[in-house]
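Re: beginner question about structure tokens

> Can someone show what the tokenized structure looks like for a real chain? I only ever see the sequence side.

Sure, here's an example I had lying around. Input first:
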Amino acid sequence: MSTAGMRFISKALDRSDSEAFKRCRLKPVHFPTRDEERIVSWIEEYNQKNAGACPTPEEVAAEFVAFEYYPDVPAAFESLAREVKENWAQRETVRLLRGKLDPQDQEEQVRGITVKKLFEEKEGIELVRGLLSELEHIEQEADVSKRLGRNLRDMSADGLEEYHRRKEGKSFKMWRTPFETLNKEIGGLYSGDVYTIFAESGRGKSYLTIAFLDEFLRQGATVLFKSYELKWFLVLARLISIASARDEAFTDVRTKRKIGIRNKGILTGKLTGAEEGLYEQMVREINDYYPGQIILQAKSDHELTRSLSELDQELRSNQGIDVVVIDPFNNVSDVYGRNVNKTAGGAAETAARRFEQIIGQYDVVGLTTVQASVENSQKDKEKIRAGKRELKLPTRDQVKTTKAVLEVSSNLFSFDNVDGVARIGTEKGRNGGEGFYVDLIAMLDYGVLREAPSGEAVREQFTAVF
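And the corresponding structure tokens:
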């Protein structure tokens, strides 16, 4: 059963905002359980008897054993109310069509409408109109009225509270990237915002997302990871390789660099004795190794969903998710769906904007990948043919799928990787950092993707390895 009702009540009590029920046109009858109905009725009575005051969660808990308190609910009142009313509309429609009169049903007591009564009193077109009228009533009642916008009084009242909630880390969450220099520049990845990684094909976008995944899990995040191009074992192999490299499990004899378990060795079942022993230990203990948790939907898994409607439902049903990763975004079915605005790429644009809305509604971090179009000069092509390709970050005008991905992203991370070195840059920075980049050491088969020591000639050191 949905927890939206109890979460709405908890949020109203936390904010001492009993007016939230009126603003969202929520009545006791809209809530799914008798306990919730009684709690909301009691809050309304308390408000009337105490000059508009709102009870505390402790006072409600003392009156109602069934009250389930949710502290620091991040979702907006409107989104919670919409969920409550959508569920009410479904129940009410079923009640109407079944034609059963429940003597405890307040709505029926007030309006006295049942299908049986309609059939007894009306016929033909009048019967159809009667049914439509009842359905229209349900539709109107399920509407959540929203204010036109915030005025100065609203912002004055909410501004200080929101600042202190952010100061205490209650209003939003920020998750660090794997690269400390990048964190210093952009702050981190903020809940409610979309972030996008883009690179040319085969340059390591998926690998980079798993490096981000490792960092999120180390911070205790619960991550919903949709991998449309990698099967579950490939994701696990890369994650173990990256984790072991961060633990500095081994030392490369040629470069003296700290490395992890070979990814290809895991995939082919050809690890050395020491690697195999560590791999088996890490796999057995991985649930305790990370403070966070992953919900993996990988290529060919029957759990893997592809539509944004399914993502919406998954987030609604799993309130503990902190981060959503979609790799790549163009494999979401909505990208090739109905083109409502009849323009080139219209479906993809609509999908990107709906994804942004879902991420904001559930106050989670959204991380996606998209491909960059290839733009090589004749000179570049000659270097590539000669095996001397240079490190080159793509620019924002190379974003494929839809430019709306660029527009909805708080940060657009460009990425490239060649001959043991890599670079991550910010092609767009809503909160700063645009044009910034970080040079990286990239020994991807050994789990290594870390910042290059400042001033060190990394390319010369690592070219021999590859």
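Each token stands for a local structural state, so reading them left to right follows the chain. The CA atoms of residues 80 and 277 lie 49 Å apart.
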